[in-house]
Design goal:
three-stranded parallel sheet
Length: about 300
């Protein structure tokens, strides 16, 4: 089916108390893994593109792959920009086909955060593109203290004055590139999630979805999280299998012989995440809802 708007995906997820996994994809294998896993689990899925990919390719190179696979998929697929730092990042992503974009200015003073996000909203709103803003302190690989958590009053001000339509707050989530045993164990602040969702009235996006036990993820989705960004657990499985195959073979191995098992390893983890988020089995329900909405 064609790409699906994040507006529809998040509305259905919010109404039905599950979250859609947004899988950070810096190569075609992870995009393929996410969509293959989504079809196996009958789950909605979001392909999340990070600006760092432009060090080797263009946004529209990866989004072209995602759009083609989405057109052939039996489940709803969306495309979103992760951690845009400038208006230019977001415009490039919109041109490439993203239906939501993030302007991450959480580490800047609140007024500056509002100003930067509003610039993106002013450009994106006429096109029906959702804009994600971030608030709170999410140091990479570190457990948050109470002082790091998103302040509810500031979050309301950010959403109201910038026009942001998705909020990515610090909620006890561990964010960043620390992997496996090196990553601190998250402890999500479920009460803060409830407060933020009720006060701001916009969908909550949780970054740092890796490493969270299933019971915490289910509690977070029930509290109001409807989009979860996942990278570390998936890329760790992918890289581990890639390294294993390359180590066990000669330097002249055809790279496809390493990429195939690496992608399969990523698929297994992605399927597990869809179970954690409660999105498994929701693909068909989403499409039925969409048909009724359009009728």
């Amino acid at each position: 089916m064609p790409l699906v708007s994040l507006q529809h995906l998040l509305t259905h997820a919010s109404d039905n108390k599950y979250a859609v996994g947004a899988f950070v994809s810096m190569n075609t294998e992870i995009i393929q893994a996410a969509i293959v896993a989504a079809e196996r689990k009958n789950s909605p899925v979001v392909i999340r593109i990070h600006p760092d990919v432009r060090e080797i390719t263009r946004f529209d190179t990866l989004t072209a792959v995602a759009k083609q696979l989405a057109a052939e998929a039996s489940v709803p697929v969306g495309i979103s920009l992760d951690h845009g730092e400038t208006l230019g990042d977001t415009i490039d992503a919109i041109r490439a086909g993203c239906t939501s974009v993030m302007l991450d200015a959480a580490e800047k003073p609140l007024e500056e955060n509002i100003r930067l996000v509003k610039e993106v909203v002013d450009a994106a709103r006429p096109l029906g593109i959702l804009v994600e803003a971030s608030i709170g302190h999410m140091e990479h690989g570190a457990i948050q203290t109470d002082d790091d958590l998103a302040d509810v009053a500031e979050a309301v001000k950010l959403v109201k004055e910038s026009g942001a339509t998705i909020l990515a707050p610090a909620i006890g989530n561990v964010h960043g590139s620390a992997h496996g045993e090196q990553k601190a164990t998250p402890k999500l602040n479920i009460e803060r999630i409830v407060e933020l969702r009720k006060a701001t009235g916009v969908p909550i996006c949780m970054h740092g979805g890796s490493g969270n036990p299933r019971d915490q993820m289910r509690a977070a989705t029930a509290a109001g999280v409807s989009l979860v960004i996942l990278f570390s657990d998936i890329i760790t499985a992918y890289n581990r299998e890639l390294k294993r195959v390359l180590t066990e073979n000669s330097i002249g191995i055809a790279i496809i012989d390493a990429l195939v098992p690496a992608q399969r390893a990523a698929e297994v983890v992605i399927e597990e995440k869809m179970e954690d988020l409660g999105s498994a089995g929701q693909g068909e329900a989403f499409m039925t809802w969409m048909r009724k909405t359009a009728a």
